[in-house]
Amino acid sequence: MNRDWVLLHLREAQEELVTIVNELESSQDYDEADFVVAMAHLYNHINTAWNSRNAELDETSIKTNFYLWRDFPNDISMG
Q1: Cβ neighbours for 65, distance < 8 A, ≥ 6 positions apart
Q2: Cα–Cα nearest to 45, from 20, 79, 78
Q3: Could you give the count of Cα atoms lying within 13 Å of 49 in the half-sphere of its Cβ?
Q4: What is the pLDDT of residue 29?
Q5: Are the CB atoms for 30 and 73 separated by under 8 Å?
Q6: What is the pLDDT along the chain (79 residues), one digit of tens a residue?
Q7: Which one, of 60, 43, 50, 64, lies nearest residue 7 by Cα?
Q8: Around 39, how many Cα atoms within 13 Å sit in the side-chain half-sphere?
Q9: Per-residue pLDDT, 58
Q10: What is the pLDDT of residue 77?
Q11: DSSP, residue by residue, the chain
């Protein structure tokens, strides 16, 4: 597993999650449009952490797989 890469994405996700919670608790101006953007950012990092955890990381791989890695994982059962 690429621990540094996974940690980078999980830390970004953690930061976004904290921001979402803080905004929802403190701001009446935080609306659904803001929430959609924030959740997309959160999922991007969580999904990338999972989907690319064992990938060979180089500039070409990262560029080539950017959209693939951020998709919801197909190897985790939610049921």
Answers
A1: 52, 55
A2: 20
A3: 16
A4: 96
A5: no
A6: 999 999 999 999 999 999 999 999 999 999 999 999 999 999 999 999 999 999 999 999 999 999 999 999 999 988 8
A7: 50
A8: 9
A9: 93
A10: 87
A11: --HHHHHHHHHHHHHHHHHHHHHHHH-TT--HHHHHHHHHHHHHHHHHHHHTTTPPP-HHHHHHHHHHHHSPPSS----
- Residue reference for tokens 């180089």: 58
**Which two structure tokens, joined as six digits, stand for 2?**
């690429």
* Residue 21 amino acid letter: V
Instruction: Tell me the one-letter amino acid at 61.
Output: S
In one letter, which amino acid is 41? H
Type of residue numbered 52: S
Residue 79: both structure tokens together: 């049921």
